[in-house]
Write a structure and sequence with these properties.
Strand content: 35-45%
Order of helices and strands: HHEEEHEEEEEEEEEEEHEEEEEEEEE
Number of helices: 4
Strand order of the largest sheet: 13-12-20-19-22-17-15
Number of strands: 23
Distance between the termini: 72 Å
CATH architecture of one domain: Sandwich
Oligomer: single chain
CATH topology of one domain: Jelly Rolls
Radius of gyration: 23 Å
Length: 341
Amino acid sequence: MFTLVGISSLKTVLASPAEEANRVCTKGGAAVVTVKSSGHGSGFLVSQDGLIITNAHVVHDGPSVVTVVFRDGRQVPADVIGFARGGVDLAALKIQNRKNLPYLRLAADKAKVGYPVFAIGSPLDADNRDTCTQGNISRIRPDGTIQHTAILNRGNSGGPLLNTKGEVIGVNTSVAVSPVLDDAGNQVAVIPGGTGINFSQPGEKVKSFLADIKQNKVSPVSTLNKPQEKTLQSITLDGQVIKGSLNGSFDGYIFLGQAGQTVVIEMNSKEINPFLTLAQIIESANGKELKEIAENDDTGAGNFNAQIVTTLPADGIYLIVAKSAQTGENGNYSLRAAARD
């Protein structure tokens, strides 16, 4: 006995992998927003009246009202209405007085190893909104965390992980990191990404959080434990001025360099005494280690700003450590790194 299938259903069944990916990314992206708080992250609508899910770490240090940006560039305010309890990295936002907004449905089926997935968000820069990457689920961890290969970067946090139906199976939260060791073998920082191991909170946690929201059982403040490790920021040698603020520690920036390339790194401040160190990150049996290339305290007599001009010895990843010459000093600074022709 034969069953007649509608033309639209037949097209869906016969869609190529490329067409399927385009459909998921295009339709899903309409309900994904960039969340601008103290920094930026991603989020997604789960209702027509403006309820948004994101990561707690995206908004926990920010104001009670944040800005969300839609795919077409429209910006609207959203209230931070609560955080998940028990240290779960989820938060809820609400766009007020809106109806008929695009939204994503949560998948009824559980994620399984090998299934294709799609991640949508705003990696690295808020202007990179509506970026969609594709991968596969590589592992389901004992706590339900979904491990997958869809590329994530800083800024993807809070965005949805979708199945081939365009349904939410997880919330993209973090990437595996590689440790950076000093000469004594102590871990001084971590480098995110580049491992192909990315993590999303499972849809079951989102469903539980949504139930708590309905019952008004959310926390008014983040329940996350504050991270102890320093995460490094990826930059390019394009000469762009980066604004930073030291809080008694150091800031780290990584970039890809080429052998024989001359680089100019400048750190300026009116509030602290800048100190720059440049090191190459080298793979070893113990993980990643640092090989110092150059350092600079003062540009010259009477000038307390720091500058490094040097030629890179090899292709690879390099680390810029920006700090103060005086331990524990706090203050704002600007950093600029460029390749010299």
